[in-house]
Amino acid sequence: MGNLKNLEKYYSLYDKIQEIPRFAIKQVSPALSIGGRGQKYDTVRKYVNQLYTKKISLRPNLVLRTFENCFWRAYFLKVRSTKNISSAFVSLTQNPKLSYVLFLSGEYDFFVTSKQDLSQKYFGKDIKVKKKCISYTPIYTIPRGWNCTTKDALLKIAEMTLSKGKLERKMEDWLPWDEIHFKIYEILKNNFQLPLSRVVEKTSLTYNTIKKYLNEMILPYCNISHYFFPKGYDHYQQSFIITHSEYEKELVDAFSRMPCTTYVYPLEEEIVFNLFHESINDLMYAIRKLEEKGYIEKYLLQVPLYWE
To answer: Predicted confidence band at 32 (pLDDT cuts at 50, 70, 90)?
Structure first.
């Protein structure tokens, strides 16, 4: 796991930033317990910079929750002919109606989401919509196994005993946003630490108005996701697992014991886990054990190739 003492510092910083995502250095410095005021802040700033440049963490994201008048639909797509994969990739990644595009290797070629109800006709004759469903508010776990290897974490998960319990699929009543609220959200959603002065540049609003809208109209309707990858995001393999289970709640809890953040997408009837690991053999061992115990009824494993 590398230098465990340094890793503990990175995790303490990540944990503190989880509480204060738009932080000042002096607000997160207690997480490192470093003495000497001037030197302390310089050292904390260095660790924060390394946390993100090494991709041990990614910038916090704004995640809009699911509402009756504003929710995401998920589409599992298959390109009809392999010779059209590259053109489909370009058209989907440049499509303004799609909020997320994941290029996959496996049964499906793409997993995409959109706030709009898109028909088969919209995707054209070269792309087939294999499955369409509501995608509820995603979950991004806070990894409790940050000081373990992925192998050890998966071995522990394989031996766990789980209780039945489905995740709640909840649509909140109404999202009272106007166009300007969506615009501010779109600017900040992929980096919630972006200075508000940048938002001022991209809107016709004053700093104080943006701050008011953010605190009173945007944050109450969003979750904030933050991520942790002990060896750096690019070090890990990823597996995209679509499954049926009566044990969803405790599966989420089990995968929160991994060293890395797990992405969880609750769909109408299924649940998707995007897992970060270091060995497909270790992952498949854990999945097989969970399947043998009946915690996973059936599953489809795909490999993410590109996401945007």
So the answer is: confident
The most distant pair of C-alpha atoms in the chain lies apart, rounded to whole Å, by 65
Instruction: Tell me the Ramachandran region of residue 274: left when phi exceeds 0, alpha when psi lies from -120 to 50, beta otherwise.
Output: beta
For residue 222, which phi and psi values (nearest 5 degrees)? Answer: -125, 155
Is the model more confident about 153 or about 38? 153
C-alpha distance from residue 12 to each of 194, 262, 279 (Å): 22, 19, 27
Q: Which domains does the chain have, with CATH numbers?
A: 4-53 (no CATH), 63-68+138-303 (no CATH), 72-135 (3.30.70)
Sign of the C-alpha dihedral, residues 140, 141, 146, 150? negative
- Report the predicted TM-score, pTM, of the whole model to 2 decimal places: 0.94
Residues 187, 202 contacting (CB under 8 angstroms):
yes
Residues 71-94 pLDDT 10s: 999 999 999 999 999 999 999 999
pLDDT tens, residue by residue, 192-238: 999 999 999 999 899 999 999 999 999 999 999 999 999 999 999 99
Q: Which residues lie closer than 8 Å to 163 by C-beta, 6 or more apart?
A: 247, 250
User: How many helices (H) and strands (E) are present in the chain, helices listed first?
Assistant: 11, 11
Helix (H) / strand (E) containing 307: strand 298-307
174 neighbors 207 (Cβ within 8 angstroms): no
